[in-house]
């Protein structure tokens, strides 16, 4: 940190010098062109398509058609799974990060946890589905162990890996580590002096957390929750490999629509995509906004 | 302040169980192919499958292309922004975060609409064109990570002094970028590259919707049709992810040592 602030100061003093006309903007042109062609225009194209009928005239009918029961249920299911996995991931990940940073555990615990979180947060997609099928599927190891040792058949009790709870449980495998990775730097930013100062003034541990630590941490916590939410909302590979097309979530519906126009209306497909952009856009927007705010306190 | 150490331990042990049990279960399952005894039969079959070799090779090749295009795109941009156009920084940073805002499936949906065989730039009309489009789609996917990594690397070195020193010795711009800046941010570039590799190698959505024979769709196909091979593949995929992250940590540690020297 000190290192970068030194370069920053050098940088600003040097930048005051007047310069001749510069061609330096040419250096960012390829990047801007690339993002225009392969990010902005494709998205804009879909958004425009969402407001057109088959003949290309302006219409709001596609947006209105989103209220079909299948589509609404798919949005509900996706939002539900994303919210559940983001909430549980945030709570458990926060607890783990707390334990690692402030728990006074042996020195090796923290680097191991961080390395492992780095790996597990990237271990998503199809292989993750395989791992959970081998663990909690009908012939999975944990399913068999629970049955053989405790005589409990979890499938008899209504558990199903190919369902809301099953998918949430599977998503937690990358959500929790992601939370640990995001929150550890924020917890490091809690200065020891704040705790000591509050203790001198007679605050209990509970008061310290409620009145000092949590107010400082909440933008990080909420921001991380939003990122986790968007992360699982846009995910498809795990769900698709786990359930095929049997689970009605929005990404699987959109996948089927792209492959074979299951809604029998291409423009409705664009409206579906627009809805997804709105939801991930809002949650990521809140994350980006909050993380720029936290920058002030946590350095 | 007295603090109990039991709760943190319980938390960490619970976390370890949650993360290790699926791995152990998957590994155990992958060994069960032959009735009544443990064997590596599933691995033998998977590794010997020509489709495995072909799809893995294809994805590895696309991953390398993605890394090259990504580095060529990100390093000059981050460099120019740092050195000359600091006012553009918020715009560029926002653009690099967009792939997190627009889900991958929506991006590729847009491509199919924009670059289909009857459009002005029919990239999906030919296999080579689709490969290019897939590479570009992976570049966008990796953009947030690659940019963040390279930007952090550039902030840690004195870009201005290095550039002025190179200029006063008569270096041209391409030469400054290639022989002065790039070697100085190699640790950042390498971590970005390995992360990109880990993301790209098993990616399913884009490859599947663009109909390319990549590793992700192959995994899905095996998962839908076989019993024990998927578990073996999951272990292999985990090992690859682990190797990429391990290399990032290794290079990171080496970078810190060189800086300290």
In short:
Chain A: It comes from Kaistia dalseonensis. Chain A has 299 residues and is mostly helical.
Which fold name is given in CATH as the topology of chain A? MetI-like fold
**How large is the radius of gyration of chain A?**
24 Å
Greatest interface: A-B, 90 and 90 residues
Structural class of chain A: mainly alpha
Query: How far apart, in Å, are the first and last alpha carbons of chain A?
Result: 8 Å
Compute the number of structural domains of chain B.
1
Helix content of chain B: over 70%
CATH topology of chain B: MetI-like fold
Straight-line N-to-C gap of chain B: 38 Å
Just give the CATH class of chain A.
Mainly Alpha
What are the defining features of this structure?
heterodimer; A: 299 residues; mainly alpha; MetI-like fold; 75% helix; 0% strand; disordered N terminus; B: 261 residues; 12 helices; globular
């Amino acid at each position: 940190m000190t290192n970068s602030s030194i370069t920053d100061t050098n940088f600003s003093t040097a930048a005051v010098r007047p310069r001749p006309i510069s061609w330096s903007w040419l250096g960012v042109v390829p990047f801007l062109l690339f993002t225009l062609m392969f990010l902005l225009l494709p998205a804009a194209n879909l958004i425009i398509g969402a407001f057109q009928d088959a003949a290309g005239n302006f219409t709001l009918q596609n947006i209105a058609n989103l209220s079909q029961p299948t589509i609404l249920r798919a949005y509900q299911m996706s939002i539900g799974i994303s919210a559940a996995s983001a909430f549980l991931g945030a709570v458990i990940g926060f607890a783990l990060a707390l334990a690692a940073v402030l728990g006074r555990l042996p020195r090796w615990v923290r680097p191991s946890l961080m390395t492992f979180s780095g790996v597990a947060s990237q271990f998503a997609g199809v292989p993750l589905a395989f791992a959970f099928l081998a663990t909690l599927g009908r012939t999975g190891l944990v399913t068999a162990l629970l049955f053989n040792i405790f005589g409990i058949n979890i499938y008899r009790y209504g558990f199903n890996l190919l369902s809301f709870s099953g998918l949430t449980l599977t998503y937690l495998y990358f959500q929790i580590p992601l939370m640990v990775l995001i929150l550890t730097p924020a917890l490091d930013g809690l200065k020891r002096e704040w705790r000591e100062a509050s203790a001198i003034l007679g605050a209990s541990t509970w008061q310290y957390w409620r009145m000092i630590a949590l107010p400082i941490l909440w933008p990080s916590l909420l921001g991380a929750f939003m990122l986790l939410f968007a992360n699982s909302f846009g995910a498809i590979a795990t769900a698709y490999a786990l359930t095929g097309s049997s689970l009605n979530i929005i990404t699987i519906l959109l996948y089927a629509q792209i492959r074979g126009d299951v809604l029998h209306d291409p423009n409705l497909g664009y409206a579906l995509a627009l809805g997804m952009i709105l939801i991930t856009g809002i949650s990521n927007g809140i994350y980006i906004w909050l993380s720029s705010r936290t920058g002030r306190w946590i350095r | 302040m007295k603090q109990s150490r039991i709760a943190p331990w319980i938390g960490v042990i619970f976390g370890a169980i949650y993360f290790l049990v699926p791995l152990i279960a998957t590994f155990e399952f992958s060994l069960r192919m032959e009735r009544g005894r443990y064997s590596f039969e599933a691995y033998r079959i998977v590794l010997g499958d020509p489709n495995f070799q072909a799809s893995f090779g294809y994805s590895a090749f696309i991953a390398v292309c993605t890394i090259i295009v990504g580095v060529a795109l990100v390093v000059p941009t981050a460099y120019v922004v740092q050195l000359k156009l600091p006012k553009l920084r918020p715009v560029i940073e926002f653009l690099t975060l967009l792939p997190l805002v627009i889900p991958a499936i929506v991006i590729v949906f847009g491509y199919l609409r924009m670059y289909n065989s009857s459009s002005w730039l029919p990239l999906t009309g030919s296999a080579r064109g689709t490969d290019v489009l897939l590479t570009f789609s992976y570049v966008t996917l990796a953009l947030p990570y690659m940019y963040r990594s390279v930007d952090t690397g550039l902030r840690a070195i004195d870009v201005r002094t290095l550039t002025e020193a190179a200029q006063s010795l008569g270096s041209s711009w391409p030469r400054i970028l290639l022989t002065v800046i790039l070697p100085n941010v190699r640790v950042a570039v390498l971590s970005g590259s390995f992360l990109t590799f880990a993301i790209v190698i098993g990616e399913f959505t884009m490859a599947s919707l663009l109909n390319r024979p990549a590793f992700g769709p192959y995994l899905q196909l095996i998962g839908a049709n076989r019993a024990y091979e998927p578990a073996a593949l999951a272990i292999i995929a985990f090992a690859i992810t682990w190797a990429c992250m391990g290399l990032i940590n290794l290079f990171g540690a080496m970078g810190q040592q060189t800086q300290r020297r």
